[in-house]
Specification:
Layout: E1 2-10, H1 13-46, H2 56-65, H3 76-93, E2 113-118, E3 122-124, E4 127-129, E5 142-145, E6 153-154, E7 157-162, E8 165-173, E9 185-191, E10 194-197, E11 200-203, H4 207-227, E12 228-229, E13 232-233, H5 238-272, E14 275-279, H6 283-286, H7 290-299, H8 301-314, E15 318-322, E16 359-361, E17 368-370, H9 371-380
Parallel strand pairs: 9-14, 14-15
Antiparallel strand pairs: 1-5, 1-8, 2-7, 3-4, 4-5, 6-8, 7-8, 9-10, 10-11, 12-13, 16-17
Helix pairs in contact: 1-3, 2-3, 4-5, 5-8
């Protein structure tokens, strides 16, 4: 089993320059490879010759054969892993069922996040050691913090720079013992701002998080004003850089708080239950106006499902994904009647019967219940 740990890197000035150069080199290899891949693909279509179709090996060999002198001072694995990822991106292009389906795009140097991969990194004496190219004399190990355990075989390491800080994802292949078998089951109804399950409710947007979002909104407005001078976009002043740093700091705080809540909740689920049912939501189709979309994006539905999926796999738990069209909210958990048409419950309740958005009233059997608790019962029925 692969267990990934995200750590904060603290490189010295020499290794900062090395990481920055490798980030730029990764982007250079990706863009050169993508341009070559596009040319080969277009040629195969125009000439109707399958032999001209691009592949990872063809593109990689072409780039290696035409290497510049300066490229030999950087890790060779950076180029090969970039083309390998490009090949995976192109194979996903031919599978329209993939999320964010589309052709691979060129990388921009203006993107706030830049990174590279290496499969030759090692952890020695609690520090990260990158592979040193030939002819380079000055080289240092990189300090890092945030790892709970360094046991296992280290696989392909992803290193990236974001907002002036350096991070690494350390994937270790480890053996994880299954948790004790239990006979409990639960279901999770995912909502904006909270998750409902059989034991109650977990708030994913606590008050201190809402206060951080208010501060973020304030800094965003300040930043917009500082950028424009006399109707034109100005160069970045010292005050602009300071405000941007504050904004980035608060975004990082928000991400850390939300990830902490989801990790603690998912760990509790796989520890206490052996069967779990959740909804398979189509979040993109749920996005309406930009105002309503904020709540969905801040609730991290996709991240919750991702974390719960791999933790259930780790500990041998059964995870049931309800169909996207399963009417968990509209179905009566008492008599199985499904509301349709004007009887449906919306975000503003039901206008025909003047019911609130958080209450469920069955118009067939008269059953009354909280809407979210009713949805949990319906999802729980899928585990029977």
């Amino acid at each position: 089993m692969i267990r990934v740990q995200k750590v904060r890197l603290y490189p010295n000035q020499t290794m900062k320059k090395v990481i920055d150069d490798l980030c730029d080199y990764r982007r250079y290899c990706w863009n050169r490879g993508l341009a070559l891949w596009n040319d080969m693909y277009d040629s195969s279509l125009v000439l109707d010759d399958k032999k001209l179709k691009p592949s990872k090996r063809k593109v990689r060999d072409e780039l290696v054969a035409n290497k510049e002198d300066w490229q030999y001072q950087l890790s060779a694995r950076c180029l090969q892993l970039a083309i390998s990822d490009l090949g995976k991106a192109w194979s996903n292009f031919f599978n329209k069922a993939m999320p964010d389906w589309g052709k691979p795009k060129f990388k921009s140097k203006k993107a706030p996040r830049q990174g590279f991969k290496t499969d030759r990194a090692k952890v020695i004496n609690g520090k990260l050691r990158l592979d040193k190219p030939r002819g380079i004399k000055t080289w240092y190990d990189i300090k890092f913090k945030g790892a709970k355990s360094l046991e296992g075989d280290l696989k392909v390491v992803s290193i990236y720079r974001e907002n002036g800080k350096y991070w690494a994802s350390l994937p270790f292949e480890v053996e994880i013992a299954e948790k004790d078998k239990i006979s409990n089951k639960t279901a999770v109804d995912i909502n904006v701002g909270h998750f409902n399950y059989t034991e109650g409710k977990v708030n994913t947007l606590p008050n201190h998080l809402k206060n951080l979002y208010k501060r973020i909104k304030h800094y965003q407005r300040q930043l917009a004003r500082k950028r424009v001078v006399n109707g034109r976009k100005a160069t970045q002043s010292h005050n602009y850089v300071k405000t941007r740093a504050k904004l980035q700091r608060d975004y990082r705080k928000v991400a850390n708080i939300q990830h902490d809540i989801i990790h603690k909740f998912t760990t509790k689920l796989v520890s206490d239950y052996d069967k779990i049912a959740i909804e398979d939501l189509d979040v993109k189709k749920m996005l309406m106006t930009h105002v309503a979309s904020k709540g969905l994006q801040r609730s991290l539905f996709g991240y919750f499902r991702q974390v719960l999926t791999y933790k259930a796999e780790w500990y041998g738990r059964y995870l049931k994904l309800a169909d996207k069209y399963y009417p968990s909210t509209q179905r009566c958990s008492n008599c199985d009647h499904i509301k349709t048409g004007e009887d449906k419950i919306g975000l503003d309740g039901n206008q025909k019967y003047k019911t609130k958005h958080n209450e469920y009233i069955c118009y067939v059997c008269g059953f009354k219940m909280d809407r979210d608790e009713n949805a949990v019962k319906n999802l729980l029925a899928l585990l029977d």
